[in-house]
Amino acid sequence: MPNNIIEISSNNKKLSVYRGFLRVEEGGDVIKDIPFNSIHAIIITAFNIVYTNNLLQKLCEENIPLIILGKNYAPSGMLLSYIGQNRQTEIQYLQIENKKPLEKKIWQAIIKEKIKNQSAVLELFHKENKLKEIPKTVLSGDTSNREAYAARLYFKALFGEKFIRDKENSGINSFLNYGYAILRSALARYVVAAGLNPSYGVGHYNKLNPFCLVDDLIEPFRPVIDCHVYRLFEKEPNLTELSSEYKAGLSGLLVKEFYNGEGFSPLYMILQQLVWDLVNIYKSKEVKFNFNHYLFEDRLI
């Protein structure tokens, strides 16, 4: 599995293709050549970057996401391959022809798992936990919006009463933004590779968002990022700069091994499994996700 997250964080770089490598140049000098088969995603946080069209075509061919991050590391856009696996049309017909009741049940299952994982994080860090019973109250389609209610309780319990989850804010929010972008890039890659249409979601329906399905599937895994960020700020409460060291730690979560009840699997494989679970749900019409219920065992995080 390609596991390198390449970040371009300084200005005046040129990115191109050279003999099967991603070539990074500055002022005509070669900075680095990186084999494409080792790249999981490319993240751009700098300005004044030049891309060749050959590079963009190569990234699409290799299904390597190119993610543009804006202020406070919140995603501004993403380039992703239009072509998935060879049964793409068949799978997308299954996806789009599904009836609303099935989509609502899928969304219900996703939100229940997200809140369970948020609750597990609060338990892990011995925080006041008012989320324990909320998953039982999540309706089909989450029509009563228990997700938002749980989020308000969760973030204040985890990061303090004064904390507000806002992509535009710095500090903790910047770290969360960056970590979520890593997960988003991985899931986007796997969604396309499975032949699914990433714009057709089950819970997110924003007409301006071409990655609604990706933003659906990321939900149960956001607490993995929250947990990591909490530990960083627990050690260094006055932390402000998202340095390369902390970015590497967040990127490294994709290859971190998690217990799955029988053995250990890296997070990227757990994400892939979730995507294929969804494909199977579309085929069988039976909502059955193989969620990992061991993500937040204290010895593993």
Task: Write a concise synopsis of the structure shown.
The chain is α/β, with parallel strands linked by helices and 301 residues long. Helices cover 42% and strands 16% of the residues.
Question: Would you spell out the secondary-structure blueprint of this structure?
Answer:
Blueprint: E1 4-8, E2 13-18, E3 21-26, E4 29-35, E5 39-44, E6 50-51, H1 53-61, E7 66-69, E8 75-79, H2 88-96, H3 100-124, H4 146-159, H5 172-193, H6 212-217, H7 222-235, H8 244-251, E9 257-259, E10 264-266, H9 267-284
Parallel strand pairs: 1-5, 2-6, 5-7
Antiparallel strand pairs: 2-3, 3-4, 7-8, 9-10
**What is the SS-derived class?**
alpha/beta
Overall spatial form: globular
Query: Per DSSP, what share of the residues sits in E-state strands of 2 or more residues?
Result: 15-25%
How many runs of DSSP E, i.e. beta strands? 10
The average pLDDT score comes to 89
Taking the sheet with the most strands, its summary is: 4 strands, mixed
**Sheet with most strands: strand arrangement:** 1-5-7-8
Total DSSP helices: 9
Low-confidence stretches: none
The rounded distance between the terminal residues' Cα atoms is: 22 Å
What is the string of SSEs from the N terminus onward? EEEEEEHEEHHHHHHHEEH
Estimate percent helicity.
40-55%
How big is the Rg? 19 Å
Could you please describe the fold and organization of this structure?
The protein is an alpha/beta fold and 301 residues long. It is 42% helix and 16% strand. The chain has 9 helices and 10 strands. The chain has helices spanning 53-61, 88-96, 100-124, 146-159, 172-193, 212-217, 222-235, 244-251, 267-284; strands at residues 4-8, 13-18, 21-26, 29-35, 39-44, 50-51, 66-69, 75-79, 257-259, 264-266. The strands form 3 sheets. Strands 1-5-7-8 form a 4-stranded mixed beta sheet. Strands 4-3-2-6 form a 4-stranded mixed beta sheet. Helix 3 packs parallel to helix 4 (146-159), helix 3 runs parallel beside helix 7 and helix 5 (172-193) packs antiparallel against helix 7 (222-235). The mean pLDDT is 89.
